[in-house]
Write a structure and sequence with these properties.
By secondary structure, this protein is of the alpha/beta class. It contains 14 helices and 14 strands. The termini are far apart.
Amino acid sequence: MDIKQVTETIAMIEEQNFDVRTITMGISLLDCIDSDIDKAAEKVYNKIVSKAKDLVTVGDEIAAELGIPIVNKRVSVTPISIIGAATDATDYVPFAKALDRAAKEIGVNFIGGFSALVQKGYQKGDEILINSIPRALADTDFVCSSVNIGSTKTGINMTAVRDMGRIIKEASQADPMGPGKLVVFANAVEDNPFMAGAFHGVGEADCVLNVGVSGPGVVRSALSKMPDASISEVAEQIKKTAFKITRMGQLVGAEASKMLGVPFGIVDLSLAPTPAVGDSVAHILEEIGLESCGAHGTTAALAMLNDAVKKGGVMASSSVGGLSGAFIPVSEDAGMIDAVNRGALSIEKLEAMTAVCSVGLDMIAVPGDTSADTISAIIADEAAIGMVNSKTTAVRVIPAIGMKEGDTLEFGGLFGSGPVMRS
């Protein structure tokens, strides 16, 4: 690495908010199945602690050695509905509590996998898990949940769509932040390292390490240096920047894999914004040339950004996976919040943008009196976009109890705050 590359790397970290957003250990729980839910939950706890006991320490050591911030250390597990199906329990909250206890023991930020895959229908454990979600999220601190309700191959499970509207409402009533830890997917991927939607797919190895890297600020900074560039030159610059970011993620992942003695899985390069100044996907779109995020041309600019990020990542690593692309979570993106507040960005426009970004409607606060039927309709629309276009889509909406359109809901931490939008 020459001096120019060293200088570039330092600037990316210190000035442009580049970070490894997460190292996520995926752990299979299939060997924890037991007909007794308490015994199964204890097996789950023991396996997670056994496999991931050094994850946080190793992440901190690598960050110190390489000088690259590793913001989060997380765990994803086999969908709990599969593990719970072997029991006669009618409530899977004990599993959620075991996951939470394990997360606290090993010191990770979040643990994902309180999940069900119901794209074609309900099996024994699926409906039980779904009905357990509101209390599971309210009674735990670090557990994240997801439900896959559709796919391109199977279509959409409309019964699950109906049920998830109700569950999101119940989760918000049980805990105002509960829905922030719950994602409803179509075409969910098995190796996603990002929360709240991460789970460890049944097709994965027993234990793997996946890395999620981010850097909206790095991309925006690169584009700001070429104000008169053509759209082709902009795309090429995004690819080059994505290449650099992904290589750093590959380096961190390979080192963590070696130190933990766990196979390396994938690098997920997703431009995932944070509330920090300069770390916004909306501002990248405006740097490309939009008058405002949400204006005409936004969907086209986002499509180009997403495509260039994916291509740059693939050039950098043979292990690119997960969601890889651009996230558009409203509450975590200062530029998106500004666009909503000035009336330039609506849920309808965000829905159009989800046809070309890497996920879907994310971290959107809606009025507290939004009905379960309306939320189900939002989920159905997003699932239809994913199913028809063979892409992952998702819904993470938060009914803001006692609030109306135009109010601001404070989430705190990485989630930031967000305007309550018309649903």
